[in-house]
Amino acid sequence: MSVKVKVLCSCLLVASILSAPCLFAQDTDVSLLKEKIITIQNMYPLGIQTLVACSKVTDYGLYEPLPDNKIKAGDVIFFYFEPQNPSTRKAEGRYEVWLSQDVVVLDAKQQEIYKKEGFIEIHYQTSSPRLDIYGADQLTFAEVPPGQYFFKAILHDKIKEEVASATWAFEVIE
């Protein structure tokens, strides 16, 4: 091994040893920040930050929104949503988030034409905090006559026992 290579390896070793405390400090800072976010979310009321009708949902923040609020009878629609301030319970080094969502479809006169309680359930028990939480509903509007309707998402936080809702107005066309 040449002298230049030995010196370079020694410099890299020294640099990595010196930077290690900074890396650990950054990791600790991120962990502390996540704990503060959880504390704030637990203090504030549950909400639905985003409710978007989509043709496709892939992951958190990754979806293809519909171009407008018109759908054809028989179309499959996804409703992407992000909870705002979901509660996180911490016990024995584990983090728990527990939400459920009901789905209601109303006609123009606000009459229920479809309702499903517990349509989806989001229940995480993890060893690290889960902050990027989303849900996606899939509905097919079969045999729905043309007209004005409302999709209503009702979110239940099972930990803080709160409820939040959001509505999306749409029109079924032929």
Please give a handful of descriptors for the protein shown.
about 50% strand, 10 strands, four-stranded antiparallel β-sheet, 2 domains, single chain, 1 helix, six-stranded mixed β-sheet, alpha+beta, disordered N terminus, about 170 residues, Immunoglobulin-like
Overview of this protein structure:
The protein has one helix at residues 3-43; strands at residues 47-59, 62-65, 70-72, 76-84, 89-91, 94-107, 112-126, 135-140, 147-157, 162-173. With 174 residues, it is an alpha+beta fold. The chain has 2 domains: 1-43; 46-173, Immunoglobulin-like (Sandwich), CATH 2.60.40.3880. The longest helix has 41 residues, at 3-43. It is elongated and about 55 Å long.
Oligomer: single chain
Helix fraction, binned, reads: 10-25%
Q: Given the helix and strand composition, which structural class is it?
A: alpha+beta
Radius of gyration (Å)? 24 Å
CATH architecture of the largest domain: Sandwich
Whole-number count of domains:
2
Largest sheet data: 6 strands, mixed
CATH hierarchy class name of the largest domain: Mainly Beta
**What is the H-and-E element order?**
HEEEEEEEEEE
- Total beta strands: 10
Distance between the termini: 77 Å
Q: Overall pLDDT, averaged?
A: 86
Number of helices: 1
General form: elongated
